[in-house]
């Protein structure tokens, strides 16, 4: 039997990396049985005591539930040693792509990155954003060709790389992995084929998170990880929570 991992994400906005609702993308995988995950959700409800029908990460992130969050992430919590989180600083991802493109370091200029993001997202090569971008970085035939190639490669959305990294991580001991993932309408065609052809993947199934307690736990972990990471990047980090999150973070995360 392959190792079964349940996954979910937080902060996914497709190729929009600048000017969206979130600054960090987080993808979490948990290795729990259905019974263990269900027991985790029961315990969270007992501790949080909210009348909400469906619990989400924001319940754990409320100040009044701080002790519950520390328990959830801590060494005595339900996911300690049994979960993995891949983080992506969206601005850093975009800056790295721009640095590779123009061959030099890029200052974290939001205006430049926003225009670059628009250029790569559009399929209209005459989009006005292109003119603004080339005016900022220089307009050469070679650069335009590189931008077109990068646009066609569709490299911006961190979701597929995160799933591939999850498979790589969990199959690291040579055991094949079966991934149960929250439904993702954007995963189809070539994107889905790339995931299904990943070495180490024994199978992939998409489910409604409300029907699988393991995916709900992964949703909790992804949501709190994203918020903790964003607070850290924004200079509002919490040393205790950042330290509790650290053991879960994938070593190949794109997060300083």
Give the helix/strand layout:
Blueprint: E1 3-10, E2 24-30, H1 34-48, H2 57-61, H3 66-73, E3 83-89, H4 90-102, H5 110-121, H6 128-137, H7 141-153, H8 159-170, E4 177-182, H9 189-196, E5 201-207, H10 213-233, H11 239-245
Parallel strand pairs: 1-4, 4-5
Antiparallel strand pairs: 1-2, 2-3
Helix pairs in contact: 1-10, 4-5, 5-6
Question: Gist?
Answer:
This protein has helices at about 35-50, 55-60, 65-75, 90-100, 110-120, 130-135, 140-155, 160-170, 190-195, 215-235, 240-245, and strands spanning about 5-10, 25-30, 85-90, 175-180, 200-205. With about 260 residues, it is α/β, with parallel strands linked by helices. The protein has a domain at about 90-155.
Q: Can you put this structure into words, describing what you see?
A:
With 256 residues, the chain is of the alpha/beta class. Helices cover 48% and strands 14% of the residues. It has a domain at 90-153. The protein contains 11 helices and 5 strands. Pfam families: DUF3800. This is NAD-dependent protein deacetylase of SIR2 family.
| Number of distinct beta strands | 5
Instruction: Bin the strand percentage.
Output: 5-15%
Q: Assign a percent range to the helix content.
A: 40-55%
Secondary-structure element pattern, one letter each: EEHHHEHHHHHEHEHH
User: Major sheet: order of its strands?
Assistant: 3-2-1-4-5
**What is the C-alpha radius of gyration, as a whole number of Å?**
20 Å
Given as residue ranges, the uncertain stretches (5+ residues, pLDDT < 50) are none
Largest sheet: 5 strands, mixed
Counting H and I runs of at least 4 residues, what is the number of helices? 11
Shape: globular
Mean pLDDT: 92
SS-based class: alpha/beta
Distance between the ends: 37 Å
